[in-house]
Amino acid sequence: MNSFFGRLAIAGIVATTAWTGGAFAQSTEVKIAYALARDSHYGAAADAWDKYVTETSGGRFKFTHFPSSAQGGEREVIEGLQLGTGVQAVVVSSGALSNFVPEIGVTDIPFLFRDLAHARAVLDGPVGQDILAKFQDRQLIALAWGEQGFRHITNNRQPIEKPEDLAGLKIRTMENPVHIAAFETAGAAPTPMSWPEVIPALQQGAIDGQENPLSVIVSAKLWEVQKYLTVSGHVYSPAMLIVSPTFWDSLSDEDKKLFADGATKGKEAMRAFVDQSEKNGIETAKKNGMQVNELSDAQKAEFQKAIQAAYDGYYETYGKDLVDSIVATK
Ligand code: PAF
Q1: 93 CA distance to ligand 1 centroid (A)?
Q2: In this predicted model, what pLDDT tens digit does every residue of 249-265 receive, in sequence order?
Q3: What residues line ligand 1, using a CB cutoff of 6 Å?
Q4: Which domains does the chain have, with CATH numbers?
Q5: In the chain, alpha helices (H)
């Protein structure tokens, strides 16, 4: 094997020969991994990305999907991407990414974004684009911001109506220092773990609850293992469409643009899916037997007050000016 093809093979980039429309054509396989099912917001992003690249390239690229954490938890998948030993593309939450690109953690601060429009304006604007650019220095090529929606609490103990209801609650969080600090400050017992372990841990009663957006609650049918849903919207949950640097470096400039434009299509599809989930998710959860309580603005203010002490740490880490400029974005 000559050294160029050797390098591509090590990176898992495989060119296959396919019979297309009367001629043999080379197609390069693009393995794409994500944590949830193909019919989730993650699948919607991956499908739109796949469709755009496959069609626009005339079939020179062929995506193979690994949904539902088939390649492991998000942290492992990102590590494989960085080293060039795993898949070529991922759609992941910001949760695990803080461990690789700490600057992204600013987007995980609770009660930072007013609504989806605010979050999208910040991520599509200079703050979001600056964070995307930081990924390159950490051996990751982040092409677009996707999203999951606002995170809410589910649990098997009781409806969460006031901060005291969180006392001692064994709540699974992502492996994300910003989220862990918030729940600790509120008096809960945050238990960080990777997503593939969550459903078994809920089934076995090792944890009482977890927190995720409606898009995830519905896609993962969390009513099968959780009784109460508190619509807390305590934090916005961004996601990202990323490719490995090894794969990126193997692309021509024209194909880099193709993948970047495809990632934008993925972002749009993911946002459209989340818009629908935010509209229908609560009804779907209720229909499936979850007992739902929605926090009023006054109740949310109580929770924000309860985690006030965590903000000192956030300001120290990310800079109060940056946080203030995000809050002030229209
Ligand atoms: O809670 C998480 O870990 C994430 O929100 C999930 C469900 C894996 C989607 O990225």
Answers
A1: 6
A2: 999 999 999 999 999 99
A3: 35-36, 74, 93, 95, 148, 174, 195, 212, 216, 237
A4: 27-328 (3.40.190.170)
A5: 3-10, 41-56, 74-83, 94-97, 116-124, 126-134, 177-185, 198-203, 214-219, 245-249, 253-287, 297-306, 308-318, 320-328
